[in-house]
Amino acid sequence: MIRASFSRRRAGFTLIELLVVIAIMLVLVGLTTSGVMKFMATGPRLATRSNLRNLKGLVDSQWKEVADKARRDQVNSADPTVRATYVSNKLAQAFPTSFAEAYAGGGLGAWSGYTTYLGKLGVTPAKCPTTPTAAEQAICLMMALQIGPKNANVTPESLGGTAAKLVTCTLKDGSTIQAYGIVDAWGSPMQFSRSGSTVSPYLIQTLGKDGKVYTSDE
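Below the sequence we write its predicted structure tokens.
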């Protein structure tokens, strides 16, 4: 009888055993969740860096072609600063950082492909935002890659969903447009700017959702 009673008492788990099992399960769930979260955070970072390297190669190719051609063009002056200004203006014409710059064409006349494209979107010179936004810069960069001077046949589809998607831009009159723009892997528009430096003549950058700044100079 004593043996039978002892067997019955050991048939189930004690409260302490249940608590230990639950604690182990919680630890395992915590470790799994942490691993998944780290993977979810790492994926966009890697994709954004990869996209920036790809974009830099595409922009470099077009940038070099425009600059080389501008250096061969006839300029009515032997002054090297005049030549340098002309090259800079041609690059501004080919790689505008805003809708207003696209219409200004670096002071050399707007690129016809750009004015046609912007006109179809409903963007006119009077509607150009006063201060360029990231969305505007992202659209301009996609426009330059897609229908720019080299005609590299870059499309949103060829860049993929983590590098190009529809972004919304607010115009000066308060209306909005949607067009494909360059984005980071979180879907935020990337900023595109030019500089007078020969080392880093342009910059593509974004502030990721992880709080880090990613640039084409990395």
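The chain has one domain: 17-215.
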